[in-house]
């Protein structure tokens, strides 16, 4: 059977991880890579063994062989490039955040629906086997009524004043940073797991490092550098390193989360605990095979990911026997598997259920992010408004 042909736009940290995940599927082929220049695209394409390189993504969109395009560019390019991908009639898988604000994301959602393309957003944390299993368990009522959801997403890659990245520049990363970059993942994951939407927020954001030293050469995400020989310029920072957000869900249940990119020792620690009327559950992305289940009248349990012990609906998310732990790359592969199986089976995004995040989830995320920023600025509760494309 003919493989699905794919082009990827973006040669930074995340693009190659998409390519690696796609290549594990067996029925999809990455045939093109687009970068910010012909030279950088050709260099990266050669490094990754990709046959075609484009210095301008617009030229790649004219390539009739390509059916799907991944947008792995910095945040400020998401709207324009996603729009062009859709107008070129190609299916689209975009990195989060979907756009720079909810007005842009509303427009992208409407355009994708109008053109009937399959649209996805890389909310990959919902794809971990134990997260899929918890989603199923909650759906079966194993925790009872979900009353509280609390947690955090902590990293330390921006701990030092010399840590710099395009996400720190509002004109590239957006008007919020930690919230849009990792708070979006926490909110999407807990909404997916509980099946409930966040409808109101109260937020407090802080910039812990108000002036950073920007190296006079680009540094990739999570890129460590030898600080001795680098020349720096002082740059005032106005986006948040930290946020704590109270949330209210659509059924009246409550929650709270903290995000930080300056928490030493926490590398990529998305975690949440759900307190239900019958039992509790806790999951931490840094130990993804473990799912803690808390009880009042029985010993607490630690469920290690194992298909034999999973809810039937979650077994397709786990591909190795118990103890053969699956982590971050495997969750990303699960998302690609769900997205490309949907395309291979010729399903209709207008009516068929997806097991991957779509532009609708991406838009909801932007609406939450906008509400969090407004709440911080106004220091009051703010309702999550879903911009309806006029
Ligand atoms: C940096 O915070 C980052 O790479 C995010 O941009 C990703 O979405 C997250 O998965 C890991 O951390």
TrEMBL record:
This is Gfo/Idh/MocA family oxidoreductase. It comes from Peribacillus saganii. Keywords: Oxidoreductase. Residues 132-280 form the GFO/IDH/MocA-like oxidoreductase domain. It comes from the Bacteria. Pfam families: GFO_IDH_MocA (PF01408), GFO_IDH_MocA_C3 (PF22725). Residues 4-123 form the Gfo/Idh/MocA-like oxidoreductase N-terminal domain. One of its GO terms (molecular function) is oxidoreductase activity. InterPro entries: Gfo/Idh/MocA-like_OxRdtase_N, Gfo/Idh/MocA_oxidrdct_glycsds, GFO_IDH_MocA-like_dom, NAD(P)-bd_dom_sf.
């Amino acid at each position: 059977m003919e493989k699905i042909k794919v082009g990827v736009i973006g040669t930074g940290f995340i693009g190659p991880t998409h390519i690696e995940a796609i290549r594990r599927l067996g029925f999809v082929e990455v045939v093109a890579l687009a970068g910010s220049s012909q030279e950088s695209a050709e260099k990266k394409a050669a490094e990754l063994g990709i046959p075609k390189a484009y210095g301008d993504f617009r030229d790649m969109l004219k390539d009739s062989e390509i059916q799907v395009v991944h947008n792995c560019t910095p945040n400020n390019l998401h709207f324009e490039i996603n729009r062009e991908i859709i107008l070129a009639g190609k299916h689209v898988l975009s990195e989060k955040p979907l756009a720079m604000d909810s007005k842009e994301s509303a427009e992208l959602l409407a355009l994708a629906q109008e053109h009937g393309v399959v649209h996805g957003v890389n909310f990959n944390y919902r794809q971990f086997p134990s997260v899929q299993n918890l989603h199923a368990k909650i759906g079966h009522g194993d925790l009872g009524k979900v009353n509280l959801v609390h947690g955090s997403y902590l990293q330390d890659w921006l701990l030092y004043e010399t840590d710099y990245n395009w996400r720190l520049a509002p004109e590239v990363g957006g008007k919020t940073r930690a919230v849009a970059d990792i708070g979006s993942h926490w909110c999407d994951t807990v909404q997916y797991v509980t099946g409930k939407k966040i409808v109101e927020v109260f937020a407090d954001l802080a910039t812990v490092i108000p002036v950073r030293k920007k190296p006079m050469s680009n540094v990739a995400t999570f890129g460590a550098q030898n600080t001795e020989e680098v020349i720096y310029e002082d740059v005032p920072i106005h986006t948040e390193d930290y946020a704590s957000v109270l949330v209210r869900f659509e059924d009246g249940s409550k929650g709270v989360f903290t995000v930080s990119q300056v928490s030493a020792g926490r590398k990529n620690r998305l975690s949440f605990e759900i307190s239900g009327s019958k039992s509790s559950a806790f999951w931490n992305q840094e130990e993804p095979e473990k799912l803690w289940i808390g009880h009042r009248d029985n010993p607490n349990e630690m469920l290690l990911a194992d298909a034999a012990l999973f809810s039937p609906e979650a077994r397709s998310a786990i591909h190795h026997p118990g103890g053969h732990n699956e982590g971050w790359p495997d969750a990303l592969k699960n998302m690609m598997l769900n997205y490309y199986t949907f395309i291979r089976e010729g399903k209709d995004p207008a009516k068929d259920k997806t097991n991957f995040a779509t532009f609708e989830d991406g838009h909801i995320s932007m609406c939450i992010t906008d509400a969090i920023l407004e709440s911080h600025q106004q220091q009051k509760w703010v309702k999550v408004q879903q911009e309806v494309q006029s």
